[in-house]
Amino acid sequence: MNINIISQYKGLRRENYILCFGRLVTAMGAMVRPMLTMILSQKLGMNAVQVAWVTALMGILSIPANLVGGKMADRFSKKMNIVYLDIVSVVCYIICGLIPLSGKSIVLMFIASTCQNMENPSYNSLTADITLTEDRERGYSLQYLMGNLGGVMASAVAGFMFRNYLWLAFLLSGISIGISSVLIFLFVQNITPVKDISQKAVYQANRHGESLWTILRENRLILLYILTASGYGAMYQMYNYLVPMDLVRLHGDTGAVIYGTVTSVNCIIVVIFTPIFTKLLHRFSEPVKTMYGYLMMLFGYGIFLVFAGHISFYYVAMIVMTWGEVSNMLAESPYLTRRMPASHRGRVHGLMEVTRIGVMSGYQMLIGVIYKNSTPTFTWIIVLMTGALFLGLTGILAAKDKRRYKNLYRV
């Protein structure tokens, strides 16, 4: 790999690298959440509609938690928010590993997952605080890269643990999150926000005392971006919902192993292409990167639909989808942090999570009903049509954004 692609991550603050290493350690133990669909369907015997309702209900119930997480990020120590919420997650996962799998385990998983979601506004806002506007894409890119590097092993191992050692996956998840929180507590010391006086930072000036809704009324394109980003999340969620159910339908008990190995390919491609795409797409605007993400995701799902039953093509589809995932990731946090006052970052990230959860949950319930009452092919066609609609909305955003935030487009 070209040395310039790797060296682009030099020059960030020490705290950036510690946060990234924390992501790496946490991801190494993230073996349970991606297998939720299979746990509910194969271990607890739920049908497609029941799985959709349970996962959607978990998402809906976490909405107030994400709003609280956003307020916490703007009001309290972002570092300690992460540590305290991690402690709750650790306790929940360890208990899950020590008790028989049941409805109680799902409740504990929900609490742990909600705490991890609640800390996202603090994580994203802290990264923005300690990173200059020009360096922000690199900072978020490196975090994403390290998280997926840890996920390479986690995803593959989870597929093999699923049948007989699910309890161990719970324990490893708790231990890894615990290690991450200790690292952040001990080594993230300087969290003083950077002073950015560049022309592109003009939209980030603090506006203390003003409500989030006042800010959003002046920046309505933020709401459109949140909608399109939430749509992307709903589309991508089908990989964790429709794909595993189709793999089990087509390949029986080996579907879990196939799903685990395909997911590990996702992580490998992220590790390889995140630095490459960070370099190649540096000059493209965030809305354009989101459009690329939609295009490649739709193409990947199309491959899965056309070649269903042919295992080798699952990996091809995953590679294409992952290219889209990386492109979308490079847009999300930089878009919000470059266009919003620094004083409101936590709340806007909380709003983003709430909207994403609402859209994902509602869409998954709809797709669950369609999947039960029609054919898998028809269900996938509905998914592709929905993705095309959101792609069109992202195109509108790209055109309007360039006129509204002119300073960000000046070389």
Automatic annotation (TrEMBL):
Q: What is its main location?
A: membrane
Residues annotated as domain Major facilitator superfamily (MFS) profile? 1-404
Q: What Pfam families does the record point to?
A: MFS_1 (PF07690)
Matching entries from InterPro entries are given as: MFS, MFS_dom, MFS_trans_sf, MFS_Transporters
The superkingdom listed in its UniProt entry is: Bacteria
> Where is it localised?
Cell membrane
- Membrane-crossing residue ranges in chain numbering: 16-36, 48-69, 81-101, 165-188, 221-238, 258-278, 377-399
Q: How does it sit in the membrane?
A: Multi-pass membrane protein
Indicate what this protein is called per its UniProt record.
MFS transporter
Q: What is the protein's species of origin?
A: Dorea ammoniilytica
